[in-house]
């Protein structure tokens, strides 16, 4: 009884202490500081976290201990001296509790940011790199993926839970493809661990990555950011978006004749003999059928094809290019797969037993929200089975299932000014890294005229916030110039894509910047070209010069520097010419255009020009233009045939230039 009374008293006293005093909090670390992380070499290292005010935290590393006292804001920070590359190491953090981190490496850390072409994972480009991915084993190349997160009020102090992953056949599929090939090139050349922190969001514009301080220079964007800080305003937009989308999809579901007739149209026994036909791939707005003009809603497509008995029953892969906007696919009445937006390649696995000997029926239900719906041309449309290919291009039957008004796009809050900086960049401060690689710009094309200022602001803004936390000041900022995209134009025309590339080129005026030209790596029908290996390698070449001190090697293609008028011809001078300028594929240089000043003092139309290499210069002229004052090279969305390179195989950057006005 006495022992029981003592225990009750102890519990009662314990309860009093818990009520009358604050609960003690364990030492906590940012999600980025965890097992397997890569720390930046050759610069003091910041290790930080949270604990109770006044708590002493000890960080033990490489036989030494470093202490910090937690401040009133519950944060603490320890700075370790600069370290040489190596590992693996362990680290112990102790306070009221003890944390131990294992398998730590010291090498070079790169922040990978931008939009979808940086985000694009290796799984999306597996068709080009299947063998490499099957055998990939790079324990010293590691990735930390920062999930998409935005904030319109205070900057967040941490990212969602994540972990550092090393490259193996099981993990490589989730790696940023550009980042992986960039890291692979540097790791193989310099032999040090490479860490990648991927903080990129598909579709994001540059202004989403700016802090409030930087947004002050852009009043229009700042005004939007201030509206987004009003949670009631955001909730109203979200509610309206959800209601509009729900109403639209409910309507097409309820009115889709292919789903609600006596027999569903995906049933292989359904009689579709009266359906009209069109050739696929293609967009239905291009057809002569007036029922398809400007149609948004649902269109069903149907194709019958034969399968030899020797292949029937085998597992297969169905490739249907890309489809605008979303699709549901049925084979012989069985559902095969669906993708909800236009960009991912359609690659659907057909299980064993899905194919029949003889006639098979493939049905694709396409939902188009806005714009032109259909099947993207010049993509693979085929069935792969037993090492053979059955071509699915050509004549398909079709029928309209439902019509609707265009569905206005949803509001992507993650694209609003400042949101991604506060949600995904600010929480990384003050983690030390080597530099940034950036692939972004597509979402700013419609506002290309402001891009140089916006992009320069991103670079300067980030550099200001990371002051002193990187080996170089200012830290290297390397970026990809937008690839060629969209249909080829036969005449010299204005181009927003070209204008944005020019803004990127002009950003090279900032110190410690480098640009990977991708004007020969794109695909006219895909904003996400597959060749990410050359993009990553060209970024790595830029890193060699900007970040690793390679001042003698050829790390870039030719970059326009200056021009002068000589005898009716423009003489263009370039830097980064390597061992000499060359014309690739054809003896004549292509994609040069010139213009003269008209009598009204305005620049006249551009005309395709003659061009030839003279040493490290290019002479450009047109017989009908006596005094050219302006020149453009590869100035188009998709400048097919642009062929100025250096002998090392790196392409010249597109550019536009004009002589100063005569006095």
UniProtKB/TrEMBL annotation:
Transmembrane segments: none annotated. GO terms for molecular function: hydrolase activity, hydrolyzing O-glycosyl compounds; sialate O-acetylesterase activity. This is Sialate O-acetylesterase. Keywords: Hydrolase. GO terms for biological process: carbohydrate metabolic process. It comes from Rudanella paleaurantiibacter. Residues 107-236, 432-541 form the Sialate O-acetylesterase domain. InterPro entries: Galactose-bd-like_sf, Ig-like_fold, SASA, SGNH_hydro_sf, SIAE. The lineage of its organism: Bacteria, Pseudomonadati, Bacteroidota, Cytophagia, Cytophagales. It holds the Pfam family SASA.
